[in-house]
Write a structure and sequence with these properties.
With 572 residues, the chain is an all-alpha fold. The chain has a domain of 242 residues. The chain contains 18 helices and 4 strands. The strands form 2 sheets. The protein has a two-stranded antiparallel sheet. Strands 3-4 form a two-stranded antiparallel ribbon. The protein is globular, with a radius of gyration of 23 Å.
Length: 572
């Protein structure tokens, strides 16, 4: 590790702190209906959809509208991908996607996962990128924000039968948050050299005389919403390691900041809406502490490098002439520090964009992205999804702490009763239920092992990473696994749907249950304290313990064993 590396990490952290409150203020004003500068467009959309934004919905109606919208939009994307060869804006004449791959891709983008079992530049037409995948990049992110805002309303309201209007939340999140921020970021990316056109691919002759095809396309617009919406799907197969997608250190910094900006702002919005800003900052602090812990481990492991390489004479020490550490699978223009930080950021959020190959990280460096996903991606998390996932863990923490001290669990004046605990446990158990059984089935089946290019603990890590990424709606991959098969296209597609909607329903149920309760008016000293270092520590502990107890056996057989093998010189 170097001082320069920590300086860059420190700059990123400072910028994240600085954008949190201003963006949080804007988010609150948007979802309370105070931002109206696109009111005409907003009203037109409501009229076309035939909905009244003033009519609020119960949690069941809200969930039903969300599920219907997601199902219909998924079918639209599936149909477009199957008919790609017949549609315009396809200068390369790319064929339609196979049914299995179209299903997985439609499910993946609808769930904000953006898992890709294909190389974008040789699979997707410009129309598919701009009209189908980009549409879901906006829509899936707006859906996540809507669920988070609905849960915040459930906590903030007293004796209410409604948690808002899904259609209003969907439209406002898109018009006033995602679209303007994406426009600004896309223009900055174009200025930095990110490609943005609809020209045919360019045939270039290299200095050696070889012919090379340079892919073109509307990249900057995709890159902006990919990061801001924590989507992560790359226009190119190399994702954010491609120089046309992420050409400079500045674009790399902005990409990471864009991933966490809205999730961080939503935490401040939550604290403000429930009237307890200190509690909001405490939740934010717990997320930040976990982010820094992951960064310390990942950066330390990658900077130390592989002792097997050192034993063979490779110099791993950072100097003015070389970056040192483990540079396998990393871009020289980003180096070890920014590659490690990017890996932590993208898996702390449900983004999945990558600027380095996670499969080439050291075992402990690769363990961090896995753990980030296994914790439920609540370390700021995806747009909206991180906040409602964190609030579920907050309720669980309050419940456990209340039992330990002999008090009736009470969260911001709301009692945590049987219904609330049932909703929380459904949420907590659904994620591992989508990961571990499918990963175990793939490990022992011929079809699952057929796509595996590595044996031993690393092969297990690759399978575990794939299903963790799909169910956590992350979308990044360890590689080394051929995912473009009927087996993986089908199972990973199903995992994305379970990891998204089976978690959203109990989150909305929790919102409804809490909204129905009257807020107890009592002496502040009688309430369970949910702000300050003690609660921050409790929250971090519950998040880590739930993840550790669930996934430790699998992680012990994968990255942990691989680390021990590496330390032993590659021999058992």
């Amino acid at each position: 590790m170097t001082a320069n590396g920590w300086w860059q990490i420190g700059l990123f952290c400072l910028l994240l702190v600085l954008v949190t409150k201003p963006l949080g203020i804007h988010l609150r004003r948007v979802f309370e209906g105070d931002v109206t500068w696109l009111r005409l467009a907003e009203r037109l959309l409501y009229r076309l959809a035939g909905v009244d934004p003033e009519v609020e919905q119960s949690w069941t109606t809200y969930a039903g509208a969300l599920l219907v919208f997601s199902a219909l939009s998924m079918l639209l994307v599936y149909a477009g991908l199957r008919l790609q060869h017949l549609l315009p804006l396809n200068p390369q004449g790319l064929p339609a996607l196979p049914d299995r791959q179209a299903f997985e891709t439609a499910a993946s983008f609808t769930t904000n996962t953006n898992w890709q079992s294909y190389a974008g530049e040789v699979t997707m037409s410009y129309l598919s990128q701009m009209a189908l995948l980009a549409f879901q990049n906006f829509a899936s992110a707006a859906v996540g924000m809507a669920v988070a805002v609905a849960l915040v309303r459930g906590i903030a309201r007293s004796s209410a039968r409604s948690i808002g209007n899904f259609w209003a939340d969907l439209v406002r999140g898109t018009l006033y948050v995602l679209l303007p921020l994406s426009l600004v970021l896309a223009l900055v990316l174009v200025q930095q050299g990110v490609v943005q056109n609809v020209a045919p691919y360019v045939q270039a002759t290299t200095l050696e005389g070889a012919t090379q095809t340079l892919a073109m396309g509307p990249v900057a617009s995709q890159e902006a919403i990919k990061q801001l919406g924590t989507n992560g799907g790359g226009f190119f197969n190399a994702n954010a390691a491609h120089p046309f997608e992420n050409p400079t250190p500045l674009t790399n910094l902005l990409s990471m900041l864009a991933i966490l900006a809205i999730p961080a702002g939503m935490v401040w919005m939550f604290g403000d809406m429930v009237g307890h800003r200190l509690h909001g900052w405490t939740v934010w602090g717990a997320m930040f502490a976990l982010l820094m812990a992951g960064t310390l481990v990942a950066y330390g492991a990658e900077a130390a490098g592989n002792p097997i390489h050192a034993a063979r004479g490779l110099d791993l020490v950072a100097t003015n002439l070389q970056p040192g550490g483990n540079m396998e699978g990393k871009e020289v223009r980003f180096g070890v520090a920014m590659s490690a930080l990017y890996a932590v950021v993208t898996t702390a959020a449900s983004c999945g964009a990558v600027n380095a190959m996670h499969d080439s990280f050291t075992p402990l460096g690769g363990l961090v992205p896995l753990v980030n996903m296994h914790l439920g991606e609540v370390i700021f998390g995806g747009v909206g999804a991180g906040l409602y996932g964190a609030l579920v863990m907050v309720v669980l923490t309050v419940f456990l702490a209340g039992l330990m001290v002999g008090r009736t669990p009470n969260y911001l004046g709301k009692k945590i009763r049987r219904r609330e605990v049932q909703a929380v446990m459904m949420y907590v158990l659904a994620f591992p239920a989508a990961v571990l059984p499918l990963a175990a089935l793939s490990v022992v089946s011929r079809q699952g092992l057929a796509g595996l290019n590595n044996a031993g603990p690393h092969g297990l890590s690759e399978i575990l990473y794939a299903f963790s990424s799909a169910a956590a709606n992350n979308g990044s991959a360890f590689a080394g696994l051929t995912g473009s098969t009927y087996w993986y296209n089908t199972l990973l597609g199903l995992a994305t749907l379970v990891g998204r909607f089976v978690l959203i329903v109990p989150a909305l149920a929790l919102a409804g249950f809490l909204a129905e309760q009257p807020t107890a008016v009592s002496d502040e000293s009688a309430r369970f304290p949910v702000a300050g270092p003690l609660f921050l520590s409790l929250l971090v502990g519950v998040i880590v313990i739930v993840g550790a107890l669930t996934y430790f056996p699998a992680l012990a057989l994968g990255p942990v064993v691989e680390h021990l093998v590496m330390r032993a010189g590659g021999l058992f």
